[in-house]
Design a protein that fits this description.
It is a single chain. By secondary structure, the chain is an alpha/beta fold. The chain is built from twelve helices and 13 strands. It has three domains: 50 residues; 206 residues, 3-Layer(aba) Sandwich (Rossmann fold), CATH 3.40.50; 113 residues, Rossmann fold (3-Layer(aba) Sandwich), CATH 3.40.50. 38% of the residues lie in helices and 20% in strands. Helix 3 packs parallel to helix 4. Keywords: ATP-binding, Kinase, Lipid A biosynthesis, Lipid biosynthesis, Lipid metabolism, Nucleotide-binding, Transferase. This is tetraacyldisaccharide 4'-kinase. One of its GO terms (cellular component) is membrane.
Length: 396
């Protein structure tokens, strides 16, 4: 199954099918038929919402949707965390609604990163029901109708009480979740691969046609630091062709430190792996970006084992990793270090401990807004503030 996923992913992002293997080309007619069926189902769903047969629920607080048009690697979860921190710092308690897809690695990572703050994380496919349960437990306050004093409350007792009340909802992977009204639609774009072949699933990576960009309020091109200037221009042109007025921002993941899988409280500097032999192991949507970040650290040699996005690691995978480590040690005469992503760590916090005595480190990174064409982090926060119709009085 894992091999089939890899084959299909390669087909989806191939711009020229003639360069595919004979096996992959033989799969194209089947994938094309499935893609047509998916497109019909998507159109029917749109039509049912248009007729009002499927209804949208409006929540009593602003809803920020962070989504994408393709599968994986778009920086969606780091953006959710960034917005949650911004809201919390502004005195608004956010509720993150996530489906908890494929083992819930993203939800676990968000819980770990946001622990101790006012952000709440609700997991479940029925986002409206999950939100209702949190509103019932904690209460809610709409920052658009509250005065700044009521929202930020200088009185410590009242401030504590208000911090429990949900003031905004962030929909993780919300673009295709049409049953909730979105006050702000943020679409994340993987700058390294864009939209692949531009076909719908499963022939291509698109979950909706590119025309869905018309619904977006802002587009964010992720991994912008790894994309050439011409590549960014091409991405911008494709976006502008669909919606000329759409604001475009740029983000990147900046590595900060490592920690050991056996000791989550450890904090090791990036330089600890200078001149080391490294094996990158990942099951994420954009493995190339992860490997590229490790290569820049200054390792002597970097090897990689890539699995499909959200892959659940099994004992046989640990055996595969062990064999690769033995090969690298025989080749270079020194013990390699395994490096994994935070998402892979949070998917199963015990599995990589099975590689002992080999050292296994987790790379920690943070979302940043490189200054690109006048688009800055401050400008993005200002856009969020204006789009939500709230005045945060320069708290950011």
């Amino acid at each position: 199954m894992e091999n089939l996923r890899v084959l299909v992913s390669e087909i989806a992002y191939a711009r020229n099918h003639t360069k595919l293997s004979p096996l992959q080309r033989s799969l194209i007619p089947v994938l094309s038929f499935a893609s047509s069926l998916y497109g019909l189902a998507l159109s029917l769903r749109h039509y049912l919402y248009h007729l009002g047969i499927f209804r949208k629920h409006r929540l009593p607080v602003p809803v920020i949707s962070v989504g994408n048009l393709t599968w994986g690697g778009n920086g969606k979860t780091p953006m959710v965390e960034f917005i949650a921190r911004w809201l919390a710092d502004s005195g608004i308690s956010p509720l993150i609604l996530t489906r908890g897809y494929a083992g819930g690695d993203e939800a676990r990572m968000l819980v770990r990163h946001l622990l101790g703050g006012p952000a709440k994380i609700g997991v479940g496919a029925n986002r409206a029901a999950v939100a209702a349960s949190y509103f019932e437990k904690y209460g809610h306050v709409d920052p658009r109708s509250s005065t700044s004093y009521e929202r930020l409350c200088l009185n410590k007792v009242e401030s504590h009480l208000n911090s429990e009340k949900v003031g905004a909802v962030i929909l993780d992977d919300g673009m295709q979740h049409w049953s909730l009204h979105h006050d702000l639609e943020i679409v994340m774009v993987n700058g390294l691969v864009l939209w692949g072949s531009c076909h719908l699933l499963p022939l291509g990576p698109l979950r909706e046609p590119l025309t869905a960009l018309k619904r977006a309020d802002v587009a964010v091109i992720h991994h912008a630091d790894m994309v050439s200037e011409q590549g960014l221009k091409d991405a911008e042109l494709m976006i502008r062709e669909v919606k000329e007025s759409l604001p475009i921002f740029y983000t990147r993941m900046t590595p900060s430190n490592f920690f050991e899988v056996s000791n989550i409280n450890s904090k090791l500097p990036l330089g600890v792996l200078c001149n080391a032999i490294i094996l990158c192991v990942s099951a994420i949507g954009s493995a190339n970006a992860f490997v590229n970040a490790i290569e820049k650290i200054g390792a002597s040699f970097v090897d990689r084992l890539d699995f499909s996005d959200h892959h659940i690691f099994q004992a046989r995978d640990v055996d595969l990793i062990r064999r690769r480590l033995e090969e690298l040690e025989d080749k270079f005469g020194s013990k390699p270090v395994v490096v994994v992503t935070e998402k892979d760590y949070d998917r199963d916090r015990e599995i990589f401990k099975g590689l002992h005595p080999s050292k296994v480190l987790v790379l920690c990174s943070a979302l940043e807004f490189p200054s690109q064409k006048g688009c800055t982090e401050k400008g993005f926060k200002k856009l969020l503030e204006e789009s939500l119709g709230v005045k945060l009085r320069g708290l950011n």
